Amino acid sequence: QKEVEQNSGPLSVPEGAIASLNCTYSDRVSQSFFWYRQYSGKSPELIMSIYSNGDKEDGRFTAQLNKASQYVSLLIRDSQPSDSATYLCAVTTGNTPLVFGKGTRLSVIA
Amino acid sequence: DTGVSQDPRHKITKRGQNVTFRCDPISEHNRLYWYRQTLGQGPEFLTYFQNEAQLEKSRLLSDRFSAERPKGSFSTLEIQRTEQGDSAMYLCASSFQPTEAFFGQGTRLTVV
Questions:
Q1: Using alpha carbons only, what angle is made at residue A45 by residues A5 and B19, rounded to the nearest 5 degrees?
Q2: Model confidence over A6-54: pLDDT tens digits?
Q3: What is the rounded average pLDDT for all residues in chain A?
Q4: DSSP state at residue A88
Q5: How confident is the model at residue B51 (pLDDT cuts 50, 70, 90)?
Q6: Which of B56, B89, B106 sits opposite A97 (nearest CB)?
Q7: Cβ(A64)–Cβ(A7) below 8 Å
Q8: Are A98 and A1 in contact (CB under 8 A)?
Q9: Interface test with B, best of A25, A35, A39, A43 (most B CBs within 10 A)
Q10: Which of A54, A49, A48, A50 is closest to A66 using CA atoms?
Q11: Contact (CB, 8 A) for B108 and B49
Q12: Which of A67, A85, B2, B6 has the CA that lies 20 to 30 A from A28?
């Protein structure tokens, strides 16, 4: 059973702080890793993808991947109230559909 | 709008009725996925297509569920003899090969 684990939260951070979201996965042959943002009542929106070990930065978002530890994280710098949402981690081997975690609910307090 | 399109956005049906949802993927995408999501949970995989071939179905998918993708274009998901437990958001996503998948707005099903 392929599993993706996330802390369900809620994770509360003050406006302007760094939010750190974590995800672990069970399938060692996983190759591709994604972070989706989902606002309440809406569908998931892709915000980051990462395929190799290390960091990948895109604006205020940084994805970090450590395949040896089977760990992927998302950092959100200068958090804004508009970042308040559920963040979903998704993993695939490349030949299988995305497997999602349950998501971490982030609340940015103004 | 060139994104993934789903229809209808909302569906209320009585228990025991059949429902059908449609998904139009991004035009150049050859993979199409169906997921189901309930409150507080991540999307749960149902089935996926590569072009017109249905490559995988979740073991959780009962015989009441069927999906098609004729000619490798749009897809339909049918639920027969709906049950209250089928109430959920049904999400469609598409991708080009195993790369980033993009979701439609979803169809929210309520079975009463």
A1: 90
A2: 988 899 999 999 999 999 999 999 999 999 999 999 999 999 999 999 9
A3: 95
A4: E
A5: very high
A6: B56
A7: no
A8: no
A9: A43
A10: A54
A11: no
A12: A85
A101 to chain B: closest CA residue: B42
If you search the block for the tokens 């025991």, which residue do you land on? B16
Inter-chain residue contact B42 with A103, CB threshold 8 Å: yes
For residues A11 and A76, the answer to whether their CB atoms sit within 8 Å is: no
Q: Which SS3 state, helix, strand or coil, does residue B21 take?
A: strand
| Residue indicated by tokens 């995408």 | B29
Please list the residues that pair with B49 across neighbouring strands: B32, B54
Tokens of B53: 């071939």
B105–A42 C-beta distance less than 8 A = yes
Taking any CB pair shorter than 8 Å as contact, residues of chain A touching chain B are 4, 6, 8, 32, 34, 36, 42-46, 49, 88, 90, 92, 94-103
pLDDT band at residue B98 using 50, 70 and 90 as cut-offs:
confident
User: Taking an 8 Å Cβ-Cβ cutoff, which residues of chain B contact chain A?
Assistant: 33, 35, 40-45, 48, 56, 89, 91, 93, 98-106
Neighbours of B41 (CB within 10 A): 15
| Cα four-point dihedral sign B40, A45, B23, B9 | positive
Residues A102 and A22 sit within 8 Å (Cβ to Cβ)? no
Q: Is B1 exposed, middle or buried (0-12, 13-18, 19+ CB in 10 A)?
A: exposed
